[in-house]
Design brief:
6-stranded antiparallel sheet; 12 strands; elongated
Amino acid sequence: MSMTAHSQRGVALLTILLLVVSITVVAGAMLASQKIAIRRSGLLFEQNQLLQDIDAGQQMAVTLIRADDTLNDTDSEQDIWAQPMPPYLLGGHSISIELRDEASRFNINNLYQNGEVNTVALALFERLLTQLGLESDIAIAVLDYQDLDTEVYLDGGDESLVYDQQRSGSSSGTLPNQPFVSVDQLQDLGAVSDEALATLRPCITAIPYSVTINVNTASPVLLAALIDGTQSTEMQALVEMRTEQVLTDISDLWQLPPLNAVSNEDRSALESLLAVDSQAFKALITATDSMEVGQARQRFATVLISKTDADVNGADSSDGSDNGDSTDDSSGSDNQAKNIKVVHQRLWVFRPSF
């Protein structure tokens, strides 16, 4: 009897020990799971805060452009939007904004607007390519990507034969026949190599509506493309003059050498492509959390902001990249002088080239 009682006590003790171990394991697992959940919640909170910072930066950029628009009728490097802006601190986070005038570049979507080829823009783009040492045939490839017909421009021939060998074509032979939403899409054209795109990138943009070139911010090479046979070095004096005296009217441009040699007929044609202000800006917004340097998390966004006399059709677009999300926001309200609003926003997990 004593042996049986002793055995029963041993079994009971072993059972208690196993129960304690089980409870300890379960409690440890629950604690670890809770820590993970807390960590996940903290990360989600920080990410949501960073996204709110991006939205705040976006509104700050719109407000800055709107405020600048009330000061003058031009856009130049002397304006407040073009000046370096220190980071803005918000609840321990920092928000940085960089603004760029997209009208300082050639909009490749200008080649085909309202169902028609803009021959003046096409000729200018061909001269720009020549200025950059690239084949002028690239201009035709860019145009054929956009136009709605099925033949290669002027030379004729079936476009599908061209696109069958390019990434922009499909097995069904469907042609792109649509505007560009990003200059990166030029990589889909067989006529544009990676080296050619790298050369072109600083001089072009892809805005989903027609954008005139701002002569107050355009680069010397783009200004030189206005005249056949002109070199960018000949435009350097004009560029230096702009730092002291902003052009307030296109007519002022034709008084300056070498542009004063342009015929009245050519001036009339080119003026449809030129302006002294901008219709589009791009903002790069960087949101940084409050963690220590080296561990701080960042989110980036590029935002296209339009500044037009009226709503522009086709302003809603995204570049369809897998890198980040793109959202549309028309929260900007009309300004008395211009309609200034966000066209689209693209989020990045790393700093994009700008």
